[in-house]
Every structure is written in structure tokens, then in C-alpha cells.
Amino acid sequence: MIGVVLAGGESRRFGQDKALYQLPNQRVNNAQLAVDKLSPLCDRVLVSANTQNTPALTKQFADSTNVAVITDEPPFEQRGPLSGIYAATCQSDFPTDLLVMAVDYPYVSVDVLSVLANHANCYARTPDADHYTLAHFTTTREVLRDFLLLDDYRLRDFITEVQQCDPISFANAELFVNYNTPEADFHAH
Ligand SMILES: Nc1nc2c(ncn2[C@@H]2O[C@H](COP(=O)(O)OP(=O)(O)OP(=O)(O)O)[C@@H](O)[C@H]2O)c(=O)[nH]1
């Protein structure tokens, strides 16, 4: 299984790069938190970065075996999370088993990820939201390319319609705080 840390967004709402951001109550930044949680479950972890944060992330993971920083692949760069997932599938000529985690879920635990890892084709659901950027499925670059060529860049459509992923329900919503904005903590507690 290949872990994918989605870290190639623009973080406009957050106001600074979410992957490089270190929460006041954490010892490492969000990218490291995600890599550290995926690593025990995955053979390899790909950090899907953008052109701005690639230099810092490449330096950060230079000594980490089984971690590689990748950037979006043409012609589907910077069109949302599916751009990063497409880039991850481009690393292999074969169907790839992907455990995907957005970098802006700092409190998602290894336990949550292992539940996802143990189900084929699934994504996380909490009572208040569906979390399509926390998902596990096997796909190929051809399947993804054909979908993106339809001009649909919605991760939800790909996950539910193409991959036919099932939601896995988790009750502990506090683990799924999504740091899209600096106020995320306020809403969480
Ligand atoms: N590789 C890659 N990842 C992306 C892209 N857009 C978003 N992501 C990642 O997908 C996850 C969900 O993205 P969003 O939170 O919806 O978007 P964002 O760009 O991070 O933030 P906003 O600019 O505030 O919308 C985050 O972990 C992003 O880093 C993209 O074009 N390429």
C-alpha cells in the first residue's frame, strides 16, 4: 500500500502553507504528522506538494527512507486533491493501492487510518461530514486520467461514483478537525 499525503493545495483560507504549519500543541509540522502516521501502514509514502512548498518538504524528508515528495503531473496540475492523487498513480505502471490523507487533518490517528487500510475502497465519515480526503482505494493512472478528461475534478465524484467507495463511520469527530482555516480549533472545542 502506498500512502499519499495531499499537501499541494494553496491554503488560501488558512493563510499560510498548511503542510509546513506546526500547531502550537505539536512538536512537528502537519506534513511530518501525516507521514509519521502513514509510514507504519504503508510500504512507501508520497508527499504530494506544490511548487512553493516542494523545496522545504524535499529537504525535510531527504533522509527519510520510503518517503518521496512529488508534484502534480501535466496536464492536471493544481486542480484540487485529484491532481495529487493522479500524480501518485503516475509513479507506477500498475494498479496502485492508495491510502490517502490530506495534510490538514492533524488529529487523525493511526487507528483511524488502519481501519481505512483494512477495508477496500472506502472513505471516512463522521456524524457531521464526509471526509473524501481520508480514503483508501486501488486505482490506475488511466482510470483517473479518463475521469479528469471529463472535466470533473471533484474528489467526491471520483471516490463515490468511479471507485464506488463505501463510507466508514467514525463516532469520534474530534479526531477529524479539518484545518482549512485558522479558526479550526475554535470550532473544534
Ligand atoms: N497535489 C495537490 N493537492 C491539492 C491541490 N488542491 C488541494 N490539494 C490538497 O488537498 C487537500 C484538500 O484541499 P483543500 O483544503 O480543499 O484546498 P487547499 O488548496 O488546501 O486550501 P484552500 O486554498 O483554502 O482551498 C489539502 O490537503 C490540499 O493540500 C492540488 O491542486 N494539488
TrEMBL record:
Signal peptide: none annotated. CDD domains: MobA (cd02503). InterPro entries: MobA-like_NTP_Trfase, Molybde_CF_guanTrfase, Nucleotide-diphossugar_trans. One of its GO terms (biological process) is Mo-molybdopterin cofactor biosynthetic process. Residues 3-161 form the MobA-like NTP transferase domain. Gene3D superfamilies: Spore Coat Polysaccharide Biosynthesis Protein SpsA, Chain A. Keywords: Cytoplasm, GTP-binding, Magnesium, Metal-binding, Molybdenum cofactor biosynthesis, Nucleotide-binding, Transferase. One of its GO terms (molecular function) is metal ion binding. This is Molybdopterin-guanine dinucleotide biosynthesis protein MobA. It comes from Secundilactobacillus mixtipabuli. The lineage of its organism: Bacteria, Bacillati, Bacillota, Bacilli, Lactobacillales. The gene is mobA.
